[in-house]
Recover the amino acids of this structure.
């Protein structure tokens, strides 16, 4: 069943968009994961650790890591603070206690095997998985080497083989997963001479830790580190000094890593669902706006054209009328002029006759002419 | 199409070409070192600092500055601001080259680059924001490639193929906005998983929103910035439409950037208030935070506004440089400077010169490819055969 589902999801992943559904469904769920019921873990009693580095030596052997620069018996390395490296899945550090003459504190550091691991949540190729036995297991055969797991890990545990050109791997404690499956103890736990390390079911370890604190309230700080930190870890710690004094962060909170990113992942379907609809709508609106603007422009142009035409027609009419009037006036003028000229000619003719003819009844003739001219006009 | 192979003159031995050639040569040497000696041989990356300059600059800054593609095409094709049409092609080209170079640069950073398709073909880690980033960047690179192809197809004279692609414009634009929203924001969301490592002034539940909004600022500013560079060096390649619209693009985008910068400032303040981080402001980190917010958010916001009001294209172009620097600073702060703030200085990261060398190499490759394309294909001008469309 699980395999079928995984296959299905991986096909969805290949399809790209469809994957958002599966992702958000997980991310947005209210389910609270409290670890696999029979998950194993280790209780590290810091008060019991003597800093002998036996665990480091055993870890090196069982994991077939490269030999150390100096022997594991050399305690001088404890003079400086160390972190995990590709060749050291676990390191012991010495912390000088505050009080004068008090004994130094030793603390072992390795992968805490979170119940809900940040590295597994961050890995985009699922190279990390939380096994039911408790270990957070890394699969180098799919690892791309993006190192986001190292960014994500709040305990700064995963390391990287930066010096390998072609086959670099992320290196970290495996909680001796192969040995545990064979029924053996993790290398470090087996080698510890002071029983500072106890392997068992996480549930049982919590009870043991509480019992130790209850029995020695003056010795132990009343806190089990790892019970709730980052949603809980398979490694648990009890200590006789405050954890912050031995390099363990107390400000990590109790929120498991996947919850930190579930909100952002949950927004994916919103964006995928909302944007196309919204943007198509905006596109439609802007198209519509353009169209309306175009139509309005066309209307305006039409109106302007009609107005211009009317105006032109009116102008033409006016001009024509004027022309008509002008023509009439011109005709009248011409007629008037012609008549005047005619009158003048007659006058001149009469005058000539007057001069030539005798004085017999000239006035009568003149009056007759004048009357005729008046009638004509 | 009648242009010469070297736009600056007849000879290949221009100062620019010589410097570019040297950078390519050094890049080639570092590439060999990287793939024979591993990351340790060329970088200062460590177990405490797994991400360095190649993520901070090449990925985060690269993707942000390539946002001009989706911003411009959305403005033109979705919001119908057709007067920005001449800015679309250069913006799409820059975005396509930007994303292509991001993916190219990633091949240096990841341990086994040939496995980059594994999340999609072997087993997807869908709980990872990096998966979202990877999927969206891969898809968006494809979208940008298709959006860019009309220029290449016009150059090659393939009219049928071109007309098919042009018909897809709206679909591609919407797809581009969706994918950009997702991956621009999830680049910010990458850091949500590490509240214990990123300084509280920069860590916020709003990181995805900050990254998305500031990507819009980066996109707008980068279009202006790139256009001013192109005007300087490829003026002869621009047609009348491009030249006539260029000032309008600068003024319009500058004004838009001013508004977005102000909105960005407001949500930054809201973020401070929500987490009640005011008290951090009176510390060294607070001073540095204020440098970013006042010097690289409020100042460009103001200068853009003044430039838009006075129609001062020169001021807007200069401001775009400042705004781009602000985006670089912001991405550096989140991925490098304020990240791992809790570690002692001996365990902090500073890039190896060869890391810087590869980043310079990648940018140079981008500039050279850009130069080749704008001198050969119709990017800054319209192909005469297709002038009547749109």
């Amino acid at each position: 069943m699980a395999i079928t589902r995984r296959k299905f999801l991986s096909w969805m992943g290949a399809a790209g968009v469809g994957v958002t559904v599966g992702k958000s469904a997980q991310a947005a769920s209210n389910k609270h994961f409290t670890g696999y019921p029979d998950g194993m873990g280790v209780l590290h009693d810091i008060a019991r650790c003597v800093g002998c580095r036996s665990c480091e030596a055993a870890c090196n052997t069982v994991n077939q890591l490269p030999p150390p620069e100096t022997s594991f018996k050399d305690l001088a390395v404890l003079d400086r603070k160390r972190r995990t490296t590709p060749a050291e899945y676990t390191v012991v550090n010495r912390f000088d206690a505050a009080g004068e003459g008090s004994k130094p504190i030793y603390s072992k550091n390795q992968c805490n095997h979170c119940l809900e691991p940040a590295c597994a949540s961050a890995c985009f190729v699922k190279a990390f998985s939380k096994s039911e036995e408790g270990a957070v297991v890394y699969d180098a055969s799919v690892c791309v080497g993006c190192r986001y797991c190292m960014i994500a890990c709040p305990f700064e545990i995963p390391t990287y083989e930066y010096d390998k050109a072609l086959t670099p791997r992320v290196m970290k404690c495996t909680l001796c997963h192969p040995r545990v499956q064979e029924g053996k103890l993790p290398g470090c736990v087996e080698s510890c001479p002071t029983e500072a390390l106890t392997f068992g079911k996480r549930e049982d370890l919590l009870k043991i830790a509480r019992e130790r604190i209850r029995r020695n309230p003056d010795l132990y700080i009343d806190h089990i580190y790892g019970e709730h930190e980052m949603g809980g870890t398979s490694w648990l710690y009890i200590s006789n000094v405050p954890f912050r004094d031995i390099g363990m962060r107390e400000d990590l909170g109790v929120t498991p890593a996947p919850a930190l990113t579930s909100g952002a992942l949950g927004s994916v379907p919103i964006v995928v669902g909302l944007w196309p609809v919204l943007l198509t709508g905006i596109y439609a609106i802007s198209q519509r706006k353009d169209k309306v603007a175009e139509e309005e422009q066309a209307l305006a142009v039409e109106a302007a054209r009609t107005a211009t035409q009317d105006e032109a027609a009116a102008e033409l009419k006016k001009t024509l009328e004027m022309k008509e009037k002008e023509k009439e006036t011109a005709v009248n003028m011409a007629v008037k002029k012609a008549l005047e000229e005619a009158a003048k000619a007659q006058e001149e003719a009469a005058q000539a006759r007057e001069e030539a003819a005798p004085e017999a009844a000239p006035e009568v003739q003149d009056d007759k002419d004048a009357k005729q001219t008046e009638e004509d006009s | 199409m009648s242009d010469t192979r070297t736009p600056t003159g007849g000879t290949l031995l221009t100062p620019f070409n010589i410097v570019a050639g040297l950078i390519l040569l050094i890049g080639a040497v570092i590439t060999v070192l990287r793939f024979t000696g591993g990351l340790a041989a060329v970088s200062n990356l460590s177990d405490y600092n797994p991400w360095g300059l190649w993520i901070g600059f090449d990925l985060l800054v690269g993707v942000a500055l390539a946002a001009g593609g989706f911003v411009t095409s959305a403005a033109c094709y979705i919001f119908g601001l057709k007067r920005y049409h001449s800015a679309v092609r250069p913006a799409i080209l820059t975005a396509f080259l930007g994303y292509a170079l991001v993916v190219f640069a990633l091949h240096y950073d990841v341990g086994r680059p040939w496995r980059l398709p594994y999340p999609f073909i072997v087993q997807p880690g869908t709980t990872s924001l990096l998966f979202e980033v990877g999927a969206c960047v891969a898809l968006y690179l494809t979208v940008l490639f298709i959006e860019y192809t009309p220029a290449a197809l016009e150059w090659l004279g393939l009219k049928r193929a071109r007309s098919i692609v042009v018909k897809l414009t709206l679909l591609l634009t919407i797809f581009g906005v969706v994918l950009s929203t997702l991956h621009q924001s999830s680049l910010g969301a990458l850091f949500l998983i590490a509240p214990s490592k990123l300084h509280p002034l920069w860590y916020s539940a709003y990181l995805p929103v900050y990254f998305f909004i500031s990507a819009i600022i980066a996109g707008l500013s980068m279009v202006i910035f790139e256009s001013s560079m192109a005007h300087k060096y490829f003026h002869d390649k621009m047609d009348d439409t491009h030249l006539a619209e260029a000032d309008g693009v600068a003024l319009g985008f500058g004004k838009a950037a001013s508004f977005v910068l102000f909105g960005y400032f407001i949500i930054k303040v809201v973020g401070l208030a929500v987490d009640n981080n005011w008290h951090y402001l009176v510390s060294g980190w607070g001073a540095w935070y204020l440098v970013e917010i006042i010097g690289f958010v409020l100042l460009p916001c103001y200068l853009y506004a003044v430039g838009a009001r006075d129609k001062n294209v020169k001021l807007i172009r200069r401001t775009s440089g400042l705004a781009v620097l602000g985006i670089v600073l912001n991405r550096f702060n989140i991925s490098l400077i304020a990240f791992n703030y809790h570690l002692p200085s001996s365990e902090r990261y500073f890039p190896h010169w060869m890391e810087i060398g590869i980043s310079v190499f990648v940018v140079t490759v981008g500039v050279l490819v850009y130069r080749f394309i704008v001198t050969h294909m119709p990017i800054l001008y319209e192909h005469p055969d297709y002038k009547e469309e749109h």
User: Anything to note?
Assistant: Chain A touches chain B through 72 residues (CB under 8 Å). The two ends of chain A are 125 Å apart (CA to CA).
